[in-house]
Amino acid sequence: MGMVVNLATPAGLFWGMLPEIVLTGWALALMLVAGWRHGGEEDQRFAGQLALAALVSTLFALWWLWAKDARPDGIALMIALDGFRYASSTIFLLGAIMTVMLSLGYVRRERIHTPEYYLLILFATIGMMVMSAAADLIVLFLGLEIMSICVYVLTGINRRSVFGAEAALKYFLLGAFASGFLIYGIALIYGATGTTNLTLIAVSITNLGLQSNGMLMAGIGLLIIGFAFKVGAVPFHMWTPDVYEGAPTPITAFMAAAVKAAAFAALMRIMVHSLGESIGTWQNAVWWLAVVTMLGGNLMALAQRRLKRMLAYSSIAHAGYLLTAVVSGTETGAAAYLFYAFAYTLVTLGAFGVLAVVGRNGERDVRIDDLAGLAAKRPWLAFAMAVFMLSLLGFPGTAGFMAKWYVLMSAIEADQWKLGIILVLASVVSAGYYLPVVMEMYMNQPITEEAHQESVAVGAGRWVIGATAALLLLIGFFPGRLMDVSRSSSDDLKPSAAFTLNAPTGPDAGMASR
Amino acid sequence: MLLGPALGVSAILFSIGVLGVLIRRNAIIIFMCVELMLNAVNLSFVALAQQLGTDGQVFVFFVMTVAAAEAAVGFAIIIAIYRHKETLDLQNLNLLRG
Q1: Domain presence at residue B47
Q2: In CA terms, which of A132, A346, A438, A483 is 20 to 30 Å from A400?
């Protein structure tokens, strides 16, 4: 048992939220810096370096808390202190660090001279950390909105690009629409159980026998719809390809990796922690969502000729695989999510990093055929891209394979054989659009002599591409350590039996008892 | 007391908001419908708070704050798109498609 933190006292709350406080402090400082120095390239670069320092120091604050194994005194009322929070926040921070590293060269090339770019990445990361730390539905909603509002702006940060503006508008309208569903779901769950605390919801449902309460069911349904919009699950995916295509490429990577991982972290916590005991109320709905998303995402990706749009549809398909981990509703599913999200963050940042290298002006017009002969001209870049494609496909020897295998195990452990088979079939379909990329690079000749002359990874972006490719192979061959961490981080996600059996539900024991 | 009717009105308002988002084509009107959805939820929270304690009333403030932040960002984005296209009709915003 590690450090016990009493979250009812200001000092306890300070230690419990140390990573978020550190990052908020940095972000406010950066806001001042951006206000004073927003001239040109140099100032932009300085802001980027500050953002990098902010994220790295936050990571150390988080790891300090993790190493101390901080636990709340009693049940977590607003902020959870558990391995799941530490592990998922680590994933978001790593994603944000790599996004900033990719951006350093990218914003210079695309002439996006706005230091607010980095500021918004920091605030969005704070939102994600609050989401994964939330022990209360309202805190979760606030975290989600902090994140979403920053990402709406980031999508349209390139003011000269009409595509960016259109993507931002679409993202904003549908994101706000989804928030409406989410908060209505929270209101109905509050109405049925009399509380918004995640642990007390579980207690109320068990003690009051709400498993078939209409208000609760409606609330859970609306909550799932809200999250389905946020993670881009079919049939709520229509904004995803447009937004991913119009946003600056490092931001697209940030959305596909960290934003999606954060939404799933929150969904996973609600489903396993609060609703894990009443799995019958929601499992079928999420089951269908997972199936439709896996099949739909993969089939639509097959039809794409342009790389950025193809990667957008591929990220829809991957949301389907992650939903499979949610369906199990167990701690194994949560562990599979952590492993998958880590591997997927690496591969997404790497793949969009390569796309940013080979394309120009927002990279919308890079076709898969345009990669022809990349291996002959730029062997290392092509090799890294091949690793990313094979990892997205789930080829043995890459982290993607181990991640998919872990998700499959969680589904089978929960007796979801059919879902496991559909996952494997969907992965087979996905070979139809990942492998052509590899084949174009290695089997075909460059279209012209001058092709790929400018496709050179520079600066920090090169480190991101190299490090992610190396890590993916490393995890693919030696997954043991990461699996141990994923498992131990999620083994206390379910509320302990002492709380579910004995904890009082308070004076307001919910509508159903009246 | 009035819990049932209040929740019913809130559900009706929410549905009107959803329908508006799905049917209307002007970005600002769609945004107004989203605000209607959020305020319908506020009505639910207030009605439920009457029975379940003050928590629900506190949530209303959070939802209002979020709605205000969303409005600030949303109108900035709407102005950005108007500068480029001089229209707010979503049917004319179709540069990005498969």
Answers
A1: yes
A2: A132
Q: Measured between CA atoms, how close is A462 to chain B, in angstroms?
A: 29
Q: For position B60, which CATH number holds?
A: 1.10.287.3510
A511 domain residue, yes or no:
no
Spatial contact of A247 and A255, defined as CB atoms under 8 Å apart: yes
* CA A147 – CA A157 distance, rounded (Å): 15
Which of A159, A183, A508 minimises the CB distance to B80? A159
> Are A489 and A86 a contacting pair, CB within 8 Å?
yes
Peptide bond just before A10 cis, omega within 30 deg = no
Helix (H, G, I), strand (E, B) or coil at B77: helix
* B14 shares contact with chain A (CB less than 8 Å): yes
Give the one of B41, B53, B97 whose C-beta lies nearest to A187's C-beta: B41
B12 and chain A: CB distance < 8 Å anywhere?
no
The total of structural domains in chain A comes to 1
- Residue A190 is part of which domain span? 4-506
A316: nearest Cα among A218, A391, A235, A248: A235
Residue with tokens 């207690």: A203
Residue A94 in domain: yes
Categorise residue A329: left if φ over 0, alpha if ψ from -120 to 50, beta otherwise: left
Residue among B27, B38, B97 whose CB faces A173 most closely = B27
Q: What is the CB neighbour count within 10 angstroms for residue A39? A: 10
**Which residues pair with residue A71 across a beta bridge?**
A4
A contact test, residue of B13, B77, B82 with most A CBs within 10 A:
B77
With contact defined as beta carbons under 8 Å apart, do A198 and A270 qualify?
Answer: yes
Q: What's the domain range around B73?
A: 3-92
Burial, B32: exposed, middle or buried (Cβ in 10 Å; 0-12, 13-18, 19+)? middle
Q: Which of A152, A180, A507 sits opposite B34 (nearest CB)?
A: A180
How many domains does chain B divide into? Answer: 1
Contact B41 A507 (CB under 8 A): no
Report the DSSP beta bridge partners of residue A72: A5
B43 and A CB contact within 8 Å: no
pLDDT digits (tens, 9 = 90+) for A108-152: 888 888 889 999 999 999 999 999 999 999 999 999 999 999 999
Q: Do B34 and A176 touch (CB under 8 A)?
A: yes
pLDDT in tens, B19-48: 999 999 899 999 999 999 999 999 999 999
Cβ atoms of A199 and A268 closer than 8 Å: no
CA distance A227 to A141: 11
